[in-house]
Amino acid sequence: MEKIKDLRAKSVAELKDMEAQLKKEALNLRFQQAGGQLKNTARRRQVRRTIAKIQTVVAEKATQSA
User: Fold this and answer.
1) Separation of alpha carbons 47 and 7, rounded Å
2) Is 48 exposed, middle or buried, given 0-12, 13-18 or 19+ CB atoms closer than 10 A?
3) Which of 2, 22, 26, 64 sits 20 to 30 Å CA-CA off 38?
4) List of residues 6+ apart from 63 with CB closer than 8 A
């Protein structure tokens, strides 16, 4: 799980790539849970929250540059 301070140090392109990877992971976790194969159910929550943090930082960077 990424800390917000670490995310702010990254560029917008890196954050967008990271967000895309996490969205794919969230999709895979959803399918695993539906199939009854998901062992670590807390991981879904961690991924969702990390995506939200990334989106927040990207929005902050967009308002700073505008």
Assistant:
1) 14
2) middle
3) 2
4) none
